[in-house]
Structures are given as structure tokens and as C-alpha cells.
Amino acid sequence: MSPFSRRDFVALSTAATFTAKSYSQVAGSNNKLKIGVIGCGGMGTEGHMKPLVKVREQMNFEFAAVCDIYTPRADRAAQLTGAQKKYRDYRQLLADKDVDYVLIATPEHWHAQMSMDAAEAGKHIYCEKPMTYNVQEARKVVDTINRTKVKMQVGVQGMSDDSYETANKYVKDGTLGKVVLAQIDYSRNSLEPDFLFTGQEKDFKPEPGVNLDWNAWQGQAKKHPFDPNRFFNWRRYWDYSSGIASDLFIHRVTRIIKSCGLTFPQRGVSLGGKYSWPDAIGDVPDTMNMLLEYPEGMTVQLVSSMANSTPIEHMLRGHKATLTFNREGFVIRPEGPFRKDMQEITHKKSGAESTVLHHKNLQNAIRNNEALKCDCNLGYYGVAAAGMGTEAYKRQRYMGWDKAKERFVKL
Q1: Where are the domains of the chain?
Q2: Which of 70, 89, 224, 239 falls 20 to 30 Å from 256 in CA-CA distance?
Q3: pTM, full prediction
Q4: How much is the pLDDT for 183?
């Protein structure tokens, strides 16, 4: 099946007469916002809909519609949220004039196309991380958002914790001195190779028009015969995800990017493998470590294993002081040669790593033009970082960044 075409989309979309500006005006500062959910699987349900239904009156919004290409999930989502409309085709949801903004919680290989189509339909967007599957798509999404002027929040919900924007102030004012290294990790552990396993229904078989159109689900990805592992556990396959890099590192590296005011890495390397579970389904490694160099003159170290959850300290190492993030916020401790002239600084965070707060920020942006915590530009920088490490791992060589063409190159 071919990817959905622009002609198909326009033909379906009665919302094409609405601009992003008109949708913002319809929502207003005191009116109830209406959400359409695209993708009603684990993250869409557990990470978004379940916590959001508890605060919908307080935050003055409702769920207008739900959509999933897998019918049972759409049915469960409608029951959970009370949404009156269910769709299998996301384009029909985008054509629904009652929807003010969409939550996109689909597999990664669909993020870009759905986000661009939503923007063209005048819908504001909350797109789960990573913003896109690759950097080429990210550039297109940024251009589309800038042109259509819709609000787009990328689902790195840790940005709703103010620790990272506050850390950036100390970096910029020179409190840390020259920052030369940032280190951060995201590791887990288990008895089985289920680090990215989401479960599956036994004996499931797709029936187009009844429960699942497998060809439509694959979209522009490489085509394969139906495999329940690919459908239910897509994070383990390069065709749809980069596993640790795009599912976990994206959360961590965005923290560093925000804290240090970074954009695109200039070169990177990555090592790892299927060390603990060599026979696990899929392609992605269970252990992956990246080292990225930025033109500002610093490196970012990302550490992850799904076979050992012992963490490392999350910190920014500067010539004058070290900033260490913790559960309460962060602490800045001067290096030995500077202790006479500096006092320890402690920051108690406000906000939290919360999808509810992240949605609240987007809603405030729609209603009152509040600054977004993770806009499409920050989303792009995160995709570039995770993508460079992924390409270095897959090609087993250093990768660089072509600034003019905004793409990865071999070094």
C-alpha cells in the first residue's frame, strides 16, 4: 500500500478552510479545548489519556475523538475518555472541525507525516518523542510548523521540570566556567530481554477493515509480511525506531541540550550490542553508549544498558564548578582551585517530568501564547543527537554533521 498522498488528505479534510490562527481564536483564553488522540497504545493510554482524564475539568478540556489503526485500541480509548468519535484513519480525525489539537502517540515512523498533516489542517500538536524518525523529516516538520504557525509541543516531558532552563542560566553567566563534558544515563534491568517489550495478543491476525490494516500501519517503512512482534514490539526494529537511542536517550540528551544551549553535534561515535540477550527479537542493542562532540567545545556522554540499572551521576563538568542534577533539582559545587571564591549553589526545582504539565503548557501556549517547554526546534536538536549516535552505531564509524545540508556525513 502506498503512503497516504497529499491529494487524498485534501480530499478528506473539510478542515482545510481553517487556519492555525482561526483555531487559536476559536479556542480563546476561556473556552474549552478539544483533543483528538492519534495512537491509543501503551504510551497513549498509560502516559497520556489515563492521567489526563483525571484533570480535564480542572484544565478545561475534553477528548473529542480518538483514532487508532488497530480497532480494539480505539474502542478502549473511547470508553476511557468518553470521546464520542472514533476513527481508524487519522486523516478523518484531522478533518474533524471539533478538534483543536492532536496528541500523536504512534510508532516513530509515523510522527513526521502525521505532524505535518496536522499542521496543514490547522491543528495544534503534541507529538510524542522523538519528534521524527530521522533528521531529514525533522527539518521538514520544523519548516511546516514555522509556515503554518501552529503550536507544537514535543513529548520530552522532562522539559516541564525547570531544572534545565535554570541550569542554562548558570552556564551562560559563567558560574561553571567553561563546560567541557556532560554525562547522563538511562539504564534498566530485568530477568528477560523485555526492555522494550510491550506484550502482544496471542494468535492475533490482521483483517483489513475489521481490526488492522498492516500495510497502512507500515506506511513509508520497509515492507514486511505481517509479524506480531513488529506490530506489538516495534521499538525493537530499525524500520520503526532506534530503540535505546530514540526511546530513552532522547529524554536525556534533550536535558543536556537545554542546559548547555546546544544545537547540532559536529561529530559522534557509538558502541554497544546485544550483549545480554543476543537472541532477542528485533535489531536494536540492549547496551548502547554514545559520545557526541559539539562545536561549543564540549562532549556529551550517554550511557545505557538494559542489563544493569545502576545509574551514573547526571552532571555538567565545568572548569570552575560541577553541576549535578538530582531528584530535588541540582547542586553546583566549586572545583578545588575555586572554592575560596565560590559558594555551593542549590536549586529546588519547580514543575516535574509530567505529561499533564506538558499538556498544560501546550494549552497555555494555544490560549495565551505561553512559550513552549519543548518546541519543534528543540525537538529537532534531540533527533539530530540521537540520530548521529544511531548512524555511528549502525555504520561502525565516526559520523559528522554537514551544516549546510543539515545531514549526517561519514568522517
Answers
A1: 6-150, 160-194+240-350+376-410
A2: 239
A3: 0.92
A4: 98
